[in-house]
Amino acid sequence: MSRLLYLLPLLIFAVIAGYFTVPILTKKDPRILPSVMIDKPAPGHDLPALLQSKPGVAPADLKGGVKLVNFFASWCGPCRAEHPILMRLSAEGAVPLVGINYKDRPDAAIGWLRELGDPFGRIGVDADGRAAIDWGVYGVPETYVVDAGGHIRYRHVGPLTGKALKDTILPMVEQLRRGEG
Amino acid sequence: MRNLVLALFLCGLALPALAVNPSEMLEDPAQEARARELSKEIRCLVCQNQSIDDSNAGLARDLRVLLRERIVAGDDDAEIKEFLVERYGDFVLLKPPVKMSTYVLWYGPLAVGLLGAIGVAIFLLRRRGSDTASVAPAPLSDEEKRRVEALLEEQDGKA
């Protein structure tokens, strides 16, 4: 019994070392924060339209059907990187995309969409970044899955990847649809 | 000498660059001081080991401005922190709150230190106990006494 007692410090060390090592080995990015907004209603901001041809984003627009809400800016490099994926989603008609243009110059944002294509069904302008703060955004791009009731169900930080879509986001969209259908 | 004075003067001019922009500051010095103190406790979500008071990130600036608006609107510090925690979680506070899920964080080191101290105390008590009881030197046997005397005599002879 007292022999085992001598092993106790080693055991405690092993537990602590494991606690710190596992996230490194599983390559979990510690900078990606869990959202505290999950399952809460999406913040109700009335965001003006970026384009004359497309509506902006009002709180009511976030209800009625599962959708992705994507925060983007023309000055953001990773947004450019994820853009082809948004275009593909839009072409496939997999899920409606709502764009929120974060702290951008309208002319720069419009030019950016003209150059790369516009995957969004509606685009709201968040000129001062206040809506983003209410969503808990801490850097663009961020993408949210919003359910038909207008609740935030998932947050993806950083550029969307094909893998994230296939493994997590699209299955979740399907599941939310089935749950409501 | 003059050069030295000049150099010292120039060093004085080179103040650390502050993230807080004069245009953000509140007119009321008391409120501004409160804003500075509070913003030192809020984590910048972009450069995560800095407070928003230190950080030059755009989001940090937005949060500083927001915080000042709330101060002007009459919110107290707890209300402002709660507002931020609702959006960004407890992580936004540089000093984590004491609650169930953070007990290990707050009291863990104390518990480990206490366990260690108890361990050391037990170890020392045991050793002292065994010192007095069993490790007291046994008296020399007759044979040993004879050898000691022989050695001592030998040494005396040499000297």
From TrEMBL, chain A:
<keyword id="KW-0812">Transmembrane</keyword>
<dbReference type="InterPro" id="IPR013766">
    <property type="entry name" value="Thioredoxin_domain"/>
</dbReference>
<keyword id="KW-0201">Cytochrome c-type biogenesis</keyword>
<dbReference type="InterPro" id="IPR017937">
    <property type="entry name" value="Thioredoxin_CS"/>
</dbReference>
<dbReference type="Pfam" id="PF08534">
    <property type="entry name" value="Redoxin"/>
</dbReference>
<comment type="similarity">
    <text>Belongs to the thioredoxin family. DsbE subfamily.</text>
</comment>
<dbReference type="GO" id="GO:0015036">
    <property type="term" value="F:disulfide oxidoreductase activity"/>
</dbReference>
<dbReference type="GO" id="GO:0030288">
    <property type="term" value="C:outer membrane-bounded periplasmic space"/>
</dbReference>
<dbReference type="InterPro" id="IPR004799">
    <property type="entry name" value="Periplasmic_diS_OxRdtase_DsbE"/>
</dbReference>
<keyword id="KW-1133">Transmembrane helix</keyword>
<dbReference type="GO" id="GO:0017004">
    <property type="term" value="P:cytochrome complex assembly"/>
</dbReference>
<feature type="domain" description="Thioredoxin">
    <location>
        <begin position="36"/>
        <end position="178"/>
    </location>
</feature>
<keyword id="KW-0472">Membrane</keyword>
<keyword id="KW-1015">Disulfide bond</keyword>
<feature type="transmembrane region" description="Helical">
    <location>
        <begin position="6"/>
        <end position="25"/>
    </location>
</feature>
<dbReference type="InterPro" id="IPR050553">
    <property type="entry name" value="Thioredoxin_ResA/DsbE_sf"/>
</dbReference>
<keyword id="KW-0676">Redox-active center</keyword>
<dbReference type="InterPro" id="IPR013740">
    <property type="entry name" value="Redoxin"/>
</dbReference>
<protein>
    <submittedName>
        <fullName>DsbE family thiol:disulfide interchange protein</fullName>
    </submittedName>
</protein>
<dbReference type="InterPro" id="IPR036249">
    <property type="entry name" value="Thioredoxin-like_sf"/>
</dbReference>
Automatic annotation (TrEMBL), chain B:
<keyword id="KW-0201">Cytochrome c-type biogenesis</keyword>
<dbReference type="GO" id="GO:0046872">
    <property type="term" value="F:metal ion binding"/>
</dbReference>
<comment type="similarity">
    <text>Belongs to the CcmH/CycL/Ccl2/NrfF family.</text>
</comment>
<dbReference type="GO" id="GO:0005886">
    <property type="term" value="C:plasma membrane"/>
</dbReference>
<keyword id="KW-1133">Transmembrane helix</keyword>
<protein>
    <recommendedName>
        <fullName>Cytochrome c-type biogenesis protein</fullName>
    </recommendedName>
</protein>
<feature type="domain" description="CcmH/CycL/Ccl2/NrfF N-terminal">
    <location>
        <begin position="8"/>
        <end position="152"/>
    </location>
</feature>
<feature type="transmembrane region" description="Helical">
    <location>
        <begin position="104"/>
        <end position="125"/>
    </location>
</feature>
<keyword id="KW-0812">Transmembrane</keyword>
<feature type="signal peptide">
    <location>
        <begin position="1"/>
        <end position="19"/>
    </location>
</feature>
<comment type="function">
    <text>Required for the biogenesis of c-type cytochromes. Possible subunit of a heme lyase.</text>
</comment>
<keyword id="KW-0732">Signal</keyword>
<keyword id="KW-0349">Heme</keyword>
<dbReference type="GO" id="GO:0017004">
    <property type="term" value="P:cytochrome complex assembly"/>
</dbReference>
<dbReference type="InterPro" id="IPR051263">
    <property type="entry name" value="C-type_cytochrome_biogenesis"/>
</dbReference>
<keyword id="KW-0479">Metal-binding</keyword>
<keyword id="KW-0472">Membrane</keyword>
<keyword id="KW-0408">Iron</keyword>
<dbReference type="Pfam" id="PF03918">
    <property type="entry name" value="CcmH"/>
</dbReference>
<dbReference type="InterPro" id="IPR005616">
    <property type="entry name" value="CcmH/CycL/Ccl2/NrfF_N"/>
</dbReference>
<dbReference type="InterPro" id="IPR038297">
    <property type="entry name" value="CcmH/CycL/NrfF/Ccl2_sf"/>
</dbReference>
